[in-house]
Amino acid sequence: MKATVLKFAVAAGLMAGVATGAMAQQKSVTIGVSIPAATHGWTGGVVYHAQETAKQLEKGYPGLKVVVKTSPDGASQANALDDLTSQKVDALVVLPFNSDELTNPMREIKKRGTFVTIVDRGLKDPAIQDIYVAGNNPEFGRVAAKYFVDNLKQGNVVVLRGIPTVVDEERVTNFEKALEGSGIKVLDKQYANWNRDDAFKVMQDYLAKHPKIDAVWASDDDMALGVMEAIRQAKREDIKFVLGGAGMKDMVKKVMDGDKMVPANVSYPPSMISTALGVTAAHFYTNAPMRGTYTLNAELITKDNAKNFYFPNSPF
Amino acid sequence: MTETVLRTGAEKRRFNVDMRALSPFIALIVLVIAGALINPDFLTASNLLNVVTRSAFIAIIAVGATFVIAGGGLDLSVGSMAALTAGVMILTLNNMGTGDMGTLALGMLVAIGLSAACGLANGLIVTFGRIEPFIVTLGTMGIFRSLVIWLAAGGTITMRNFELRELYRPVYFGSVFGVPYPIIAFMVVAAVGALILYRTSFGRHVVALGSNEDVARYSGVPIWRVRTLTYIIQGVCVGIAVLVYVPRLGSATPTTGLLWELQAITAVVIGGTALKGGIGRIWGTVVGAVILELVANIMVLSNFVSEFLVGAVQGAIIIIAMLVQRSVHRGR
């Protein structure tokens, strides 16, 4: 039976002419993508990479259609998911605002037989997701801490935290845990909301408060830029370097150019949405098993490998 | 006997009025003393100058907000307006390219022009549309914010020309006789604001409008013109704040100016302006802005407040500062 179908297909393909690719076009797959709107640098990067990858995949896999929807907040994301499923998508790739809120809507969607891929923030019930592509926040803190231990060995460090969230908490607690027993002491840690202006203010205050700071863990590139401006204003020579994170193009460029204040960075790539899209598309077009959890490494970006992390066209 | 009583009564009243205007300054002094007790580094000249310089944006914006609020209005769009103005100004500078004074002057003109236009739009919709300013400016807040996100494509708008950046940088970081330019800028803005509010007929019209619109109308105050002008003044103040803001970090992001509207309104109220309109205190507003920034500074300098509780302590300090003010002029 199978053989007959195959023969028929081959025959049909030959008749239509292989050059037109008619055979491949018989397959039609639609992937819906729901991501946060570009409200800050990192999500801006997510949107950019989602759109770029959608174009590439549509070119590479004939018959594939990728629909990208952005939402400004959690509630509108739930609505966007409704819109997407009503368009009869075969798979959904979702980067949730709040994974708790989205767990139930996603369960309903899954029940209808849609293939579900979740990115960055996992659902409460892992049974719902077919594929989970996760950034590694604890690792993000550990890699940063290891850089301080290896390069500073001994000294005083100040920390700027992001917005009080699980992401921030995982990063900072693992950073501190990894520093235990080393010669590095955390003098101070304050929230600066992943915001340049707030980081500038907090750093000014750190500089007034602590006469000797050896290095700064800004934990984010936006904050690192504010920190560096404050250091420059105070003309302080004691600070050896500032370690940011997430791999913003301006900062990766500085690493590439060998800037002394910015010797390294830790990746937390918004392009993880591309990984998720690629794996999801491959699920429909190849026979290789794709279901599972993919944890991306938080990698140390140094002068040697910086060019692999540099995307000059991305807004982030 | 009667004479004496009468005389003290009159003196008391005059003293009372002074205390009311003075109370924000008293709260400021109390905070400075508290700061000095918490950390001796607080009183260093560099720390105090940093804090006052930092408060310049909010102070300048809040001077404009004093007009709007004294006139019985409200402007929630100032933070987004600042972000949009900063974004457009930087894009203009980037597209002009050359690193000379002419380019900079043009960029500044664009900034002031745009923010004044934004203020005009707010004012016209409020007056001619007869819609609550809360709703109008909530709407424009969303519009301005989205426009800057769109212009930045979700990323960052950064000054690309290095020469221009270095040329402009001193406007935030430079100083004359040890006084940083931003401090001079907000003193000048406040002085001009005080002059307009207290010494011109327009200023009296604003206050009249804020205390009772109907009475003001029957007294021949040109309501729509006065009201629209307060929003334009607010817009121009936002523009001036942006001129001082852009040289600091040389960039605008979708999070630029987030919640500035709330800080500006808080500064105005701490300064003694009534939220329901009818009273405007420019110098109080400026002190209010400095108080807000001081509280944040003291939080970071203190060693005993966990970073998780900073917001709670900050809120409590502001409420206590207001209670102290109130008791000062009630106790007399």
UniProtKB/TrEMBL annotation, chain A:
GO annotation, cellular component aspect: cell envelope
Superkingdom in the source lineage: Bacteria
Assigned keywords, A-Z: Signal
Pfam families: Peripla_BP_4 (PF13407)
Residue ranges of domain Periplasmic binding protein in the record: 31-259
This protein's record includes keyword Signal: yes
Signal peptide positions on this chain: 1-24
Protein location: Cell envelope
MF term (GO), any: carbohydrate binding
Entry's family note: Belongs to the bacterial solute-binding protein 2 family.
Designated name of the protein: Substrate-binding domain-containing protein
Organism field: Microvirga aerilata
TrEMBL record, chain B:
Pfam families: BPD_transp_2
Bilayer-crossing regions: 21-39, 51-69, 76-93, 105-128, 135-159, 179-198, 228-246, 258-275, 282-302, 308-324
Keywords, in A-Z order: Cell membrane, Membrane, Transmembrane, Transmembrane helix
Membrane topology summary: Multi-pass membrane protein
Chief place of localization: membrane
Protein location: Cell membrane
MF terms in GO: transmembrane transporter activity
InterPro entries tied to this protein: ABC_transp_permease (IPR001851)
One Gene Ontology CC term in the entry: plasma membrane
Name used for this protein in its record: ABC transporter permease
Species whose genome carries this gene: Microvirga aerilata
Lineage per the UniProt record: Bacteria, Pseudomonadati, Pseudomonadota, Alphaproteobacteria, Hyphomicrobiales
